C-alpha cells in the first residue's frame, strides 16, 4: 500500500485475480465506505490551478555508485529545487528507490 494524497491510497496485489476479487467486495474503514477503483494515469492528478509547495519524487534505478546525497540534491534541483532526502534513502535501508522532496 502506498499513500498518495488526501484520502487516496494505491494498493498493489500479487495477481490480477486477487485484485479483481478484492475490488468486488464492499470495504469499510472506520465505518466509512471505501471505493476501490483501478489505477490510471489521472488518479491523484492535481488540476492545473492547484499550486503545491512541495512534492515527493521517487527515484528508480539509481546505481549504487551514484547513491549519495550530492546526486539526490542535483536531481532535486533539476526537478524544481531540492528540499530534502527521505531518511530511508540516506540510511540506504532500501536500495530499490529513493524519495526526495522537491519544490512544487
Automatic annotation (TrEMBL):
A Pfam family matched in the record: DUF4283
Domain of life: Eukaryota
Residue ranges annotated for the DUF4283 domain, each copy included: 2-44
PANTHER family per UniProt: DUF4283 DOMAIN PROTEIN (PTHR34427), DUF4283 DOMAIN-CONTAINING PROTEIN (PTHR34427:SF10)
Protein name as catalogued: DUF4283 domain-containing protein
Native source species: Nicotiana attenuata
Amino acid at each position: 500500500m502506498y499513500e498518495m494524497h488526501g484520502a487516496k491510497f494505491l494498493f498493489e496485489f500479487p495477481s490480477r485475480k486477487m485484485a479483481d476479487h478484492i475490488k468486488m467486495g464492499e470495504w469499510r474503514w472506520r465505518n466509512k465506505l471505501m471505493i476501490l477503483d483501478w489505477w490510471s494515469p489521472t488518479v491523484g492528478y492535481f488540476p492545473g490551478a492547484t499550486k503545491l509547495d512541495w512534492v515527493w519524487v521517487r527515484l528508480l534505478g539509481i546505481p549504487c555508485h551514484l547513491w549519495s546525497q550530492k546526486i539526490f540534491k542535483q536531481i532535486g534541483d533539476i526537478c524544481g529545487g531540492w528540499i530534502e532526502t527521505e531518511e530511508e534513502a540516506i540510511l540506504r535501508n532500501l536500495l530499490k528507490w529513493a524519495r526526495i522532496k522537491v519544490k512544487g
